[in-house]
Design goal:
The protein is of the alpha/beta class. 31% of the residues lie in helices and 16% in strands. It is built from 15 helices and 16 strands. Helix 13 crosses helix 14. 43% of the residues are buried.
Length: 504
């Protein structure tokens, strides 16, 4: 018996060793330096839109909180649709009709907004694929809209000269992970707010009420199947499908990739990068946590950003509202000024902004969101020279307003930031430096930009010419020991005035 056990352990050891030997991140890293097109793009748009958009209530995490009996989502669902035992999340799918969806109109709007890449959430945490999938019957072609949403968006994005992004959140299916040790009676008790937060964090659904337990078809939606099958056929299989069918330029991952064994993460990267090489193109992988090496991926910060210059290109994904990432009836939309200032700050620190919008289940993009996108586009049409194709200067900016360290936990601090007329950000293109104001300067006043001080300009270059983007008025300027003094002849826009400083 002891001998058999020894042999068994040796076999296990060999298996683990063989798997580790298959993972060679270094061999992939040479294939995926961040491409210049991504460094140049600076701004992209995507959208959270799916079955979770139907209720228009509180959060895109609706399918998770639906199964917490103490949650507001649970109460709303019960009052609106009836008992969860008779009307579960999957019963919302026929109500996701997308009857007003027009891919060409959507992508044209993104283009007008100034996006250089665009796309969609290909699959959120709810197990519903927004493409023509063979991995799962729960997809937008066989159910709901009965349209290939990924395919329609991909076609329009590429036709309009943009790069195509698909985002994946399916490493964590809201209904897949449960803990059978939690008794049904425990979750029905009235708990303190602290205890409720604990359960929200640890238990994604209410044990005993979940509809997938004995239904083989529902298991493909809710993910309750053997782990190996889930990882190989569902997580990795869906990624390969989208790569093969739609050839995305960017694949972006939400958190919880650590739920997927490293071997499968490596298989994905290898497959995607090799397919890109076969197609003669440069692609980008974006991840949110430290679950893929930066040698093959780009770091993403959700609803937050860097507080200083960063040597590697990074990305922020930000939503257009102060609330849910999907549409809800009480969604409060940010101003174009807020989002443009965020874009400027991100670009000045070597970052890229991916902005999320929130369409209605019918396929309508609400007017307030459209207006904000068009206002961003108007500003970029006038001042995009200082954003697109630029690189960082020796410093990202100056002024009294300082961003907190990048972390989603500081979202409220980032959302509340108010810049002043003394805050400036800088970008560079060749021998040209752009000074982007983060507040409205006073016409006929004079401003001083300390970053141009003689003691700070170590390269010895001197200013040759200064102009203002969007204006033909003369800008008076003077190089002084303590910085560059500039006149404010006019204010061509109310959001951010941009000085173009041409160096010798």
């Amino acid at each position: 018996m002891k001998k058999l056990f020894t042999i068994f352990m040796l076999l296990i050891s060999c298996l683990v060793s063989a798997q580790k030997n298959q993972i060679d991140w270094k061999s992939l890293s040479m294939n995926n330096e961040v491409p210049e097109w991504f460094k140049n793009a600076k701004f992209g748009i995507y959208f959270h839109w799916g079955v979770y958009s139907v209720p228009e209530f509180q959060t895109e995490w609706y399918p998770r909180y639906l199964y917490f009996p103490w949650s507001e989502v649970h109460r709303y669902h019960k009052e609106t649709y009836g008992p969860i035992s008779k009307f579960g999340y999957h019963d919302l799918i026929p109500l996701f009709k997308a009857e007003k969806f027009n891919a060409k109109e959507w992508v044209t709007l993104f283009k007008k907004a100034g996006a250089r890449f665009a796309g969609l959430v290909a699959e959120h945490h709810d197990g519903f694929a927004m493409w023509n999938s063979k991995c799962t019957p729960w997809n937008s072609v066989e159910m709901g809209p009965k349209r290939d949403i990924v395919g329609e968006i991909e076609k329009e994005v590429k036709q309009q000269g943009m790069k195509f992004i698909t985002t994946f959140h399916h490493a964590r299916n809201f209904q897949r992970y449960s803990d059978p040790k939690v008794l049904k009676t425990e979750l029905t008790k009235e708990y303190s707010a602290e205890r409720r937060r604990f359960y929200r964090s640890h238990f994604p659904y209410y044990p005993g009420t979940h509809p997938a337990s004995n239904d083989p078809k529902l298991q493909y939606l809710y993910g309750n199947m053997p782990t190996e099958k889930w990882h190989k056929e569902i997580w990795l299989g869906k990624l390969k499908e989208v790569i093969d069918q739609y050839d995305p330029d960017i694949i972006w991952f939400d958190s919880w990739l650590d739920e997927i064994p490293e071997n499968y993460r490596y298989q994905f990267c290898k497959y995607y990068l090799h397919r890109a090489k076969e197609r003669g193109k440069e692609t980008v992988i974006v991840r949110k946590e430290e679950d893929l090496p930066l040698s093959v991926s780009v770091e993403n910060l959700e609803n937050s950003r860097k507080s200083d210059l960063h040597p590697l290109t990074w990305e922020t994904d930000e939503t257009i509202s102060y609330g849910s990432w999907s549409y809800t009836t009480d969604l409060k939309i940010k101003t174009s000024k807020h989002l443009i200032h965020e874009l400027i700050d991100i670009v000045s620190k070597n970052g890229v902004l991916l902005l999320n919008i929130s369409p209605r289940a019918s396929g309508e993009i609400p007017a307030d969101q459209q207006n904000v996108l068009l206002e961003i586009g108007t500003w970029l049409k006038q001042n995009g020279e200082a954003i697109y194709d630029t690189r960082t200067w020796y410093t990202y900016g100056e002024g009294p307003t300082k961003e907190p360290e990048g972390n989603i936990n500081n979202r409220k601090l980032f959302d509340a930031l108010q810049y002043t007329s003394e805050d400036y950000r800088f970008t560079k293109k060749g021998n040209t430096i752009y000074i982007l104001s983060m507040g409205k300067p006073i016409v006929s006043s004079t401003i001083l930009v300390n970053a141009f001080a003689v003691t700070k300009m170590s390269n010895g270059k001197k200013v040759k010419r200064v102009s203002m983007l969007g204006s033909n008025k003369k800008v008076d300027w003077a190089m002084e020991t303590i910085g560059l003094k500039l006149s404010v002849p006019e204010v061509p826009n109310e959001i951010s005035v941009v000085y173009k400083v041409e160096m010798e």
